[in-house]
Amino acid sequence: MSEKKSYGFTTTILHNDRQKPIEHGSLHKPIHTSVTFGYNDARQLASVFQGKEPGFRYGRQGNPTISALEDKITKMEDGVSTLCFATGMGAIGAVFQALLRAGDHIVSSSFLFGNTNSLWQTAAGQGVDVAFADATDVANVEAALTPATRLVFVETIANPRTQVADLARIGQLCKERGILFVVDNTMTSPYLFRPKTVGAGLVVNALTKSIGGHGNALGGSLTDTGMYDWSAFPNIAANYKRNPPAQWGMAQLRAKALRDFGASLAPEAAHHIAVGAETLALRMERASSNALAVARMLEADERVAAVHYPGLASHPQHALATDLFKAYGSLFSFELKDGIDCFDYLNRLKLGISASNLGDTRTLVIPVSHTIFYEMGAERRASMGIAESLIRVSVGIEDSADLLDDFQSALAVA
């Protein structure tokens, strides 16, 4: 495989490890469990610590197995560099921990994963001002900006109501104002969408979800796309400015979020995620196709009050999603009509598993208001449009006919 030739998404990921020497001709980067790395020349050790040459310092800041995964994610996102973390929340938390200071201001989409919402509340309690805006319209984001705004944070497709952010226009706004644009790409994955195309400077992926894809490893990542001018960011410490400006952001993130905060990915998890990533495109195509089929079936059923999925023509951002994404993703949510108990419905499913993960090979279902969004309270849920009967579905790669039968049969008893 030649590095000069341009290959497709899956071919690139499958053969990426082999672009650098691997011990004993292994096709996968082996699991390196050592937490420390020795050098025959002490001067070289010092040079690695000072960032003058590549190398590994200590397991908290990376190792060969994790580095191989980071390179894989960088290629997926067409980025410049990637840092991996213990979880997706660790990656988002790294942005707060390493880049923001008391008195800073951020604008976040009001349609957020529950834990991200909780993190921003924590940030607000520590002196970072957080404004929430309906990111489906760039005008709302623009109205929320202040002179102290350091970054804008959005998800591509919101979890669980599937609102689609006005990504291209928000990206243009951030470019004009010199603001860091951070996009959580978890719901779409790098196969369906690359946030770099809309000007995102940092891209978040919860590797636990579709990229790993098998529910057997936690992980998260931040990718620098090269689209943001870090010399415009006011919070870079002087000692990281010894590097070229393009490297400032990731140098500070690696030091502050991995070295200091310690949200490090384990090598065993990195290996699981790297192997799972090889089939990302195949799984996303199948899961997205399944999700569209089940969403259409439910929307046509009179016992269903609403279905929220960007692939449906009835979705408010259907046209926007069609323009942005290769497909509409594997996640949707729906509400049953009054009189149909959501718990009873879920218990009648044979294939849909009541569980809190998403992006798995198996179809997972969860009653949103009573579980992952319970802690935020009824008022906040209502402001996000989350009904008490809302069921989130992360569609897997099962045979489509079997899923359609399962979700329809569970309705038939109602």
Explain this structure:
The protein is of the alpha/beta class. It has 15 helices and twelve strands. The strands form two sheets. Strands 1-7-6-5-4-2-3 form a seven-stranded mixed sheet, sandwiched between helices. Strands 8-9-12-11-10 form a five-stranded mixed sheet, covered by helices on one side. β4, α7 and β5 form a beta-alpha-beta unit. The longest helix has 20 residues. The chain is globular and about 75 Å long. Its cofactor is pyridoxal 5'-phosphate. This is Cystathionine gamma-synthase family protein. It comes from Massilia violaceinigra.
Fold blueprint:
Layout: H1 9-15, H2 42-49, H3 64-76, E1 81-85, H4 88-99, E2 105-109, H5 114-125, E3 129-133, H6 138-144, E4 149-155, H7 167-177, E5 180-184, H8 189-192, E6 202-205, E7 220-224, H9 248-260, H10 267-277, H11 280-299, E8 304-308, H12 318-324, E9 331-336, H13 342-348, E10 353-354, E11 364-367, H14 377-383, E12 390-394, H15 400-412
Parallel strand pairs: 2-3, 2-4, 4-5, 5-6, 10-11
Antiparallel strand pairs: 1-7, 6-7, 8-9, 9-12, 11-12
What is the overall number of helices?
15
Q: Which class best fits the helix and strand makeup?
A: alpha/beta
The coarse overall form would be globular
For the record, give the distance between the C-alpha atoms at the N and C termini, rounded to a whole number: 56 Å
Strand % is: 5-15%
**Largest β sheet strand count, sense and barrel closure:** 7 strands, mixed
Average pLDDT works out at: 94
Radius of gyration: 22 Å
SSE ordering: HHHEHEHEHEHEHEEHHHEHEHEEHEH
User: What's the helical proportion of residues?
Assistant: 25-40%
Strand order of the largest sheet: 1-7-6-5-4-2-3
**Low-pLDDT windows of residues:** none
Number of strands: 12
